[in-house]
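The authors assume throughout that readers already know how a fold can be written as C-alpha cells. For illustration, here is how one protein appears when written out as sequence plus C-alpha cells.
>
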Amino acid sequence: MGRKAILCGLALLWACAADGCSSKRHIAVGSKNFTEQVILGEILAQQIENRLHEPVDRKLNLGGMLLAHQALLQGDLDLYPEYTGTAFANVLKKGGVTDAAVVLGRVRDEYAKLHLTWLDPLGFNNSFAMAVRGADARGRNLKTLSDAAADKTGFALGAGYEFVTHPDGYAAVSKNYPIRWTAAMKTMDLGLLYRALEDNQVSMVAGNTTDGVLSKLDVTVLEDDKHAFPPYQACVVVRDGALGAYPNLGSALRELSGKISDSAMRNLNYQVDALHRPVRDVAAEFLSQAGLK
C-alpha cells in the first residue's frame, strides 16, 4: 500500500473517531402519513430516547398502511403505530368480527409468524367516523348510518384515500348500508374533509373518531349501528429482532399502554391540526403530563 493510501486511510479513521462513526444502526420509528400517526410516532421516538438514551431514526409521515407494513417486514422500520382493525382487514384479509379482544388476538397470532409483536393497546380506538353537518342531522333526524340509508335525499361523500381503497372502508359501508350517493365520491387529504363539509362541497365525510375538530365543529358522527367497521385499537407493532437487540425497548414502549384515551388523542390531534403547534412540542408535553418524562 502506498504512503498516500495509508494517509487517506488514517484520515478516514480519524474522521470516524471524531464524528462518532459506528456501524450500529439506530432504532427506526415510523408512522403513516396523517397527523395522528405522526404524533404517535414522535411520542414513541421521544419515549425511546428518554428511557434507552439511544438516538432514534425518525421515518415519520411515510405513506399508507401497506408501505409502512412492508418497511417493517424488510427491516427498514423497527416499529410503528397501527390499528387492529386495519391489520385485520387489510393484511390478514379477515372480517365479520366485532369483538376487540378477538381481533387483537388473531392479529397477534398471525403477526407472530412474521416475527412481529403487537404490544398492548395504547388506550384508544380510532374507527371511521361517518359525519354530517349538525344542521342536517337535526333537520333530517339522522343519528345512525341506517337512518342515512333510509334518507331519500341522499349524500355526497368526501373521503381519504385509504377509506376508498381498503375493504374495511367504503366497501364495508356499501355492503351494510344502501345509502343513496348523489355524486361521485370526492377523494381528498384527510385535513380537508371538514372544510369541504362546512363549505357544502360534500354532505357526508368519512373522517376518524379521534379527529380533533369533532369536539369543536357542529357535526354529527352517525352511529355504525350494524357494526360495519371492525374495532381499531391503536397499538405499537415491533420487530422481534429489535426487541432482542434492545432488551429495554419492550418495557419502555409498554409504559405507554393504556395511557392515551379517545379524548386525549382527539386533543393531541387538535393541538397540531387546529392550533398548529409543533408535533415535537405536543409529544413532549403529553409525555410530561403522563408522568413519563
